[in-house]
Specification:
Distance between the termini: 32 Å
Order of helices and strands: HHH
Oligomer: single chain
Strand content: under 5%
Radius of gyration: 20 Å
Structural class: mainly alpha
């Protein structure tokens, strides 16, 4: 598989993982009882960007490795999924 395709797939996996990781461990200003005037109570009290980026990168790397093993090494793909409906052509 070309290296550009591998990076493109990793980029997509990374972005999807980022949105799954963002809400993990977030405490709101209301939960901390420290609401800053002019902000909503549901805003994060402390945003830990470094932790989110590192966790996203690690999880995306594991997902990418699993995808690579299943698709490239084992040879499974979209056509390997069984069909539960009849073909009409």
């Amino acid at each position: 598989m070309p290296i550009f395709s591998t990076f493109a797939i990793y980029f997509i996996i990374w972005w999807l993982t980022l949105f799954a990781v963002l809400p993990l461990g977030v405490r709101t200003q209301a939960e901390e009882n420290e609401v800053v005037p002019g902000t909503v109570e549901s805003a994060p009290a402390r945003f830990r960007a470094k932790r989110v980026l590192l966790l996203t990168t690690a999880i995306a790397a594991v997902i990418q490795l699993a995808w690579y093993i299943v698709s490239v090494r084992l040879g499974y793909g979209i056509d390997s999924i069984p069909r539960f409906y009849p073909k009409f052509y």
